[in-house]
Amino acid sequence: MGAMFRSEEMVLCQLFVQPEAAYVSMYELGEAGIAQFRDLNPHVNDFQRRYVSEVRRCSEMERKLRWVAGELPEPPPPPKPERCSLSPREINILEERIDFIESEIQEITRNARNLKSDYLALIELRTLIEKMQTFFQDHSAQRKISASVQIYNNDAVLGHLGFISGVVTTARVPAFEKMLWRISHGNIFFKQAQIDEPLKDPITGHELQKTVFVVFFHGEQIKLRVKKVCHGFKATLYPCPATYKDQLDMLAGVGTRIKDLEMVLEQTENHRRLVLTNIARDISTWMVAVRKEKAIYHTLNMFSMDIVKKCLIAECWVPRKDLTAVQKALENGVKASGSPIPSILHYVPTNEIPPTFNRTNKFTRGFQNLIDSYGIASYREVNPALYTIITFPFLFAVMFGDVGHGIIMTAFAAILVIYEKRFLKIKTDNEIWNIFFGGRYIILLMGIFSIYTGLIYNDMFSKSLNIFGTSWRNVYEDGVLRNHTMLELDPKTAYTQTPYPFGLDPAWQFASNNIIFLNSFKMKLSIIFGVIHMAFGVTMSVVNFNFFRKPEMIFLQYIPQILFLLLLFWYLCLLMFMKWIMYSAVSEDPSLGTSCAPSVLIIFINMMLMKSSEDKPPCRAMMYAGQNEVQRTFLAIAFLCIPIMLFGKPIYKAFLAKKRKQYQQGVETGEVTEKEGHDGGLAEELITQCIHTIEYVLGAVSHTASYLRLWALSLAHAQLSAVLWQRVLVMGMGPPGVTSIKLYIIFAVWAFFTLAILVLMEGLSAFLHTLRLHWVEFMSKFYEGQGYAFAPFSFTDILENEEDDHKPVMETNGGPPE
Amino acid sequence: MGASFIPITVFTVLWGIVGIVCPFFAPKGPNRGIIQVVLMLTAATCWLFWLCAYMAQMNPLIGPRLDNETLIWMAHTWFKQPLMPVKGQQNREVKLAESSTFP
Amino acid sequence: MACKFCGPKLSLCGLVLSVWGIIQLTLMGVFYYIRAVALLEDLPLDEHHHSMDSFITNVETGYTQNAYNCWIAALLYVITLVVSGHQFWMNNRSSVSM
């Protein structure tokens, strides 16, 4: 039955590996992803394990690499697909290289920063001098000052006025000025000018608004005070020559220095870019190597040492099919290390429940996920995902049946499937997109089945296709046609007696009573498929009983259950089929005519209530002779099944226990295998069984009714799409001309609502109802779902998860500093 | 009995081929079983679905109730019936009558 | 780019809508043209007809009119397709060149 029928057989293996060989072996196992290791030192603290230093080293390298990656101007290209493990020597080299690169980049960054602050200072100085020149020149009154200053500067002893110039943040200027005023009791002259072009902070890269100022004062004491204030306000002071000529000289000097610095800065930037581009190609590959390394040591930490500390002991779950691969990995490890002692693998018999592992491919994974989100299957029990591949899209399509909507859905999924490789490369965090993309094969099948069911329902955007020619004909004369607005075609005369060969007759689309017809058809359909689906589920339990060597359960549980279901509910379905075949508008026997057609539901209810109804000539109360007797028998058998379900298993167990006891007494073995120790006794067993039985019996009724959701949703879908067509799209119909533009717009509106409401919303609701039908109605009949998933040591999983974990970190690590 | 032989045979054989013959020719490999199950289930569900729709219409107990305009147009295009003008009633309007049903 | 006026998402949306519109409106036009009964309900018909023949002619003109109406709307969608296709191409090109 293929790979998906039940989960794979798992073996608990014990590995004895030489520490030298362990690394390579683990690398191969990690690539293959086939072994789930168990932690053999659960009580040992993380920091006391054997390979802590290696793990820490790897973490350090990872951190550095992440930092370097953050420095890159653009995200690094994806890693090269390299499939070779790094030897410890290579790792050392890599570590050195990473260290070197990190320090180099750090140094370059630091240098660039220093250069930039120098550059900033020079720029500030240049602007300062330029502004100063205007200060000194602009006003005739200031000539005096300037003269005094010259005197002051020329001869310090004689001095009258001194001045200090500098640059301060614009926001602080008012406070700064006030403070200067205060400390000098008004004996200063303050002049300021804002620097027009904003400067960039070399460290943060933010823009700075600064203002040039100059303070004139008198006396040495005030000078000290002013300096202190400047210091307090974090103003940068620059020496500025007082004479115009000196200023010009200085300006020229500053200009050349700025030019030099610009050149140096550019060179530094180029060098930095060179270094970064050199490593950009490799950085992802290194990252992968380092992460793999870390994962390997992390796993090695779970191993225990033998007493003489000569070899590592590991325990792992491995699928039986992959044992040879594990063996091969071990051998390769030994070969690579050159150690003379081979690694040993042997199986450990255990009572523990192994993990559940279903091998999936890209097609089956989506379906397996649907099942797994309900509960991981118990080890080796029947996996419903196999049947879900078809039953899920089919039941969905019963509710969603519409050719047009099916085509839209199929087209969408087909694009996802055809271009899946391209889409796989674009990894996004968009959760909705990921859900759709993950379920692309489910959506594709749902779409295809919707087209089929749509064809059967003969429904395309609520319009019918008359492909094979309707089987109804007009029997009315012209006059009658004109005198009556509503005419009902009589099946006796107007029906050609050959049904429309595929799907529903297109004549029903226009009928004002089509709901009556559709309801009766779709309800019966729902019940028929529901009962078959449930019977299928109950029958699945036989496979489980067979496999787990519980043949008695087939008689004690399966047969009563299936009898109960079939005798009552499949009988109901049979009655429906009989009604379809037996009763006809053209039958000669009046008791099989239109007026005598019984309601199947009422017959069924009467059967349950054991009521017998009277004949009302020409109709008969029953559909066939002896029906009453047959029904009574069925009912009796069905109800007899209940006590078997209820008491069968507990009595059997009690009987078994008694027999075993007798046997033990007979043999008189000294050791008592007290394995059946859970002596809850008969009472507890009875209570559980009672709950199960009630659940099943009530479930049979309620679950059958629950399948009516197939009818309800498909009806709602058909009605909604009809309303949308009649209320929206028809608005655009009319003679060509202006209405064409109206149609152009109306069509867009109609398309939007079709997509949003009918395909997306209705599709989602049908999806959820289908999910429920599978989880509750189908799987409750046989599925335990008590297992735990197989989580192998696999690099692909680890790398994917880590990427998710680190993404936000990478982002906050942030933009490259300027 | 309103069943006719051809459609039943055609669709049964069609889905029979899909569900019974095709599984034998499923490509060999680890997924052979899955493909077989998929084919068989598809055929079974689709066939049963078609069958239900077919049987539900085999012996109709009610007929569609139609608007007279629709019926006239259906008669005109689908059934290719010649219109049967009745003398003396030609001047009466189609929508004149009250919404009475017939029969 | 002076003539780039919608972003990648809008142009893709326009592309999909116009492809859908062209296919469906053309087909609907065809079905109207061959007088498909299923579409009879959509015709804007007069309430009263004096004779069967006038009713038939009325219906037929209604069908023909709707057919042309649909085809013209389909043509409008062809224009939309061209415009949004151009926009889409522009967006793609600019994103590649960057």
TrEMBL record, chain A:
Could you list the residue ranges that cross the membrane? 386-419, 439-457, 525-548, 554-578, 630-652, 745-771
Pfam families per the UniProt record, alphabetical: V_ATPase_I (PF01496)
Tell me the lineage of the source organism: Eukaryota, Metazoa, Ecdysozoa, Arthropoda, Hexapoda
One GO CC term, this protein: plasma membrane
| Function of the protein | Essential component of the vacuolar proton pump (V-ATPase), a multimeric enzyme that catalyzes the translocation of protons across the membranes. Required for assembly and activity of the V-ATPase.
Question: What family is this protein classified in?
Answer: Belongs to the V-ATPase 116 kDa subunit family.
The UniProt GO MF terms for this protein read: ATPase binding; proton-transporting ATPase activity, rotational mechanism
Task: State the compartments where it is located.
Answer: Membrane
Query: Under what name is this protein listed?
Result: V-type proton ATPase subunit a
Q: Give the bilayer topology.
A: Multi-pass membrane protein
Against InterPro entries, the record matches this protein to: V-ATPase_116kDa_su, V-type_ATPase_116kDa_su_euka
Q: Which UniProt keywords apply?
A: Coiled coil, Hydrogen ion transport, Ion transport, Membrane, Transmembrane, Transmembrane helix, Transport
Which chain positions lie within coiled-coil regions? 91-118
Which GO BP annotation is one of this protein's?
Answer: vacuolar acidification
Top-level taxonomic group = Eukaryota
Automatic annotation (TrEMBL), chain B:
Source taxon at top rank:
Eukaryota
The record's GO CC annotations read:
endomembrane system; plasma membrane proton-transporting V-type ATPase complex; proton-transporting V-type ATPase, V0 domain
Q: Where in the cell is it found?
A: Endomembrane system
Chief location bin: membrane
Cell cycle as a keyword? no
Q: Which Pfam families match?
A: ATP_synt_H
One of the record's GO molecular function terms: proton-transporting ATPase activity, rotational mechanism
What sections of the protein cross the membrane? 6-26, 33-56
Membrane topology, record value: Multi-pass membrane protein
Q: Does the keyword Membrane apply?
A: yes
| InterPro entries in the cross-refs | ATPase_V0-cplx_e1/e2_su
**Which key words are in the record?**
Hydrogen ion transport, Ion transport, Membrane, Transmembrane, Transmembrane helix, Transport
Q: Which family does it belong to?
A: Belongs to the V-ATPase e1/e2 subunit family.
For this entry, the protein name equals V-type proton ATPase subunit
Automatic annotation (TrEMBL), chain C:
InterPro entries the UniProt entry points to: RNase_K
User: Residue span of the signal peptide, if any?
Assistant: none
Recite the UniProt keywords alphabetically: Membrane, Transmembrane, Transmembrane helix
Instruction: List the molecular function annotations (GO) for this entry.
Output: RNA endonuclease activity
Report if keyword Mitochondrion is assigned. Answer: no
| GO CC, one annotated term | membrane
Q: Does the keyword Cell cycle apply?
A: no
Q: Where in the cell is it found?
A: Membrane
Membrane protein topology class? Multi-pass membrane protein
Identify this protein by name.
Uncharacterized protein
Report TM segments. Answer: 12-34, 71-89
UniProt family annotation: Belongs to the RNase K family.
Annotated organism of origin: Spodoptera exigua (Beet armyworm)
Q: Which domain of life is it from?
A: Eukaryota
Q: Which PANTHER family match?
A: RIBONUCLEASE KAPPA (PTHR31733)
